């Protein structure tokens, strides 16, 4: 907006009063780049339950979008300085950069020397397209359910990483959500939508990729081995029923993208902090998620020592990025779960079991 801070706050207060003339503003605050006003309503206009709604008001030629809600008995209003759901140059730039880095990774997997022949980077498109489809659908699952529940949510930000630093050319993608979650159902559906959507795309991607993969003979030389989930084992057994004890599958880049999709789904479903699994666990378990999450996090240590050091790395990364293992409160988290909500939990648990890889990476 073109207004300075004082004019912005003035418009904010005018907007609140235009929405409800019986509101009495008590104090102001900030939440990131957003202005927040806490206000009191007269008893006859006070809602009886926690709720969130979006309202728009046009003042001085500017259309203002307000998120109005109530959290633990306190009314609040949030006015964003910018529309979080709009496409920005950051979205476009990061997406284009991630396309380049995943193309480079895919071309290197296919055996092309992109450093001496840069034009061969285009041969990485099967891997790049497959992986970005899985990651993109995962994040848009969160996005669409965020919009459905009227949560202020951004479009996905992709994270590019040059191939020498990572095998796949990216650290994934994320969306930003501002403001409190309006309900237990919203938290559950938004948290579960990503892993479920990504899983739905990753499975056929894996199957298609396996159909283009090759059977190779194990000769005992040094190599990089990918771990098997139950779903991966079942897919290989179905498509390569005569695989001998000295044979293995050399994955096509598309199959590798599908394998990465299953790994990402598994990691996101860990019931920790702000991971998707943390949202789901808190929506289902309430405050018990705190102890459940701590137990799972503690289990990563023996898993890292006796199964794969990858678990130690991921545990440390989660703790550094999240900085906490607890989940912020949700208004109606103590109410009884519906059959539909329990069903979502069961679906996510099944997906986690199918995707779980005890030893994700190893060498021989």
What are the SSEs and their pairings?
Elements: H1 5-19, E1 23-31, E2 34-41, E3 52-59, E4 62-71, E5 74-79, H2 89-109, H3 125-148, E6 152-153, E7 157-160, E8 170-174, E9 177-178, H4 184-211, E10 214-217, E11 224-226, H5 230-239, E12 247-250, H6 253-268, H7 276-285, H8 288-306, H9 310-322, H10 339-355, E13 361-363
Helix pairs in contact: 2-3, 3-4, 3-6, 4-5, 4-6, 4-7, 4-10, 6-10, 7-8, 7-10, 8-9
Q: What this model shows, in words?
A:
The protein is of the alpha+beta class and 364 residues long. It has helices at residues 5-19, 89-109, 125-148, 184-211, 230-239, 253-268, 276-285, 288-306, 310-322, 339-355; strands at 23-31, 34-41, 52-59, 62-71, 74-79, 152-153, 157-160, 170-174, 177-178, 214-217, 224-226, 247-250, 361-363. The strands form five sheets. It has a five-stranded antiparallel β-sheet, with helices on one face. A two-stranded antiparallel sheet has the order 6-9. Helix 4 runs parallel beside helix 5 (230-239), helix 4 (184-211) runs antiparallel to helix 6 (253-268) and helix 4 crosses helix 7 (276-285). 38% of the residues are buried.
């Amino acid at each position: 907006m073109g207004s300075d801070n004082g004019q912005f706050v003035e418009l904010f207060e005018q907007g609140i009063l235009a929405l409800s003339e019986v509101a009495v503003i008590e104090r102001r605050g900030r939440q990131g780049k957003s202005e927040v006003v806490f206000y009191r309503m007269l008893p006859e206009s006070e809602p009886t339950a926690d709720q969130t709604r979006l309202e728009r008001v046009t003042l001085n030629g500017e259309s203002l979008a307000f998120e109005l809600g109530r959290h633990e008995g306190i009314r609040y209003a949030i006015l964003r300085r910018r529309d979080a759901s709009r496409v920005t140059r950051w979205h476009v730039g990061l997406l284009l950069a991630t396309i380049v880095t995943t193309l480079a990774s895919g071309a290197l997997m296919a055996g092309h020397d992109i450093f001496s022949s840069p034009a061969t980077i285009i041969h990485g498109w099967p891997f790049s397209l497959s992986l970005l489809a899985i990651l993109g659908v995962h994040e848009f699952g969160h996005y669409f359910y965020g919009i459905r529940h009227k949560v202020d949510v951004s479009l996905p930000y992709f994270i590019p990483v040059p191939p020498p630093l990572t095998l796949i050319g990216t650290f994934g993608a994320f969306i930003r959500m501002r403001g409190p979650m309006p309900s237990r159902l919203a938290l559950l559906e938004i948290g579960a939508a990503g892993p479920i959507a990504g899983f739905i795309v990753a499975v056929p991607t894996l199957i298609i990729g396996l159909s283009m993969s090759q059977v190779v003979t194990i000769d005992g030389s040094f190599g990089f081995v990918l771990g098997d989930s139950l779903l991966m084992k079942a897919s290989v057994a179905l498509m390569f029923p005569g695989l001998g004890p000295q044979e293995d599958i050399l994955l096509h880049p598309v199959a590798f993208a599908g394998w990465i999709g299953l790994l990402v789904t598994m990691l996101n479903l860990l019931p920790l902090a702000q991971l998707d699994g943390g949202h789901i666990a808190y929506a289902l378990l309430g405050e018990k998620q705190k102890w459940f999450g701590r137990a799972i996090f503690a289990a990563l240590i023996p898993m890292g020592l006796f199964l794969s050091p990858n678990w130690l790395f991921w545990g440390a990364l989660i703790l550094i990025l999240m900085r906490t293992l607890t989940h912020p409160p949700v208004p109606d988290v103590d109410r009884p779960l519906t059959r539909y909500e329990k069903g979502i939990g069961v679906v996510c648990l099944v997906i986690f079991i199918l995707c779980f890889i005890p030893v994700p990476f190893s060498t021989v």
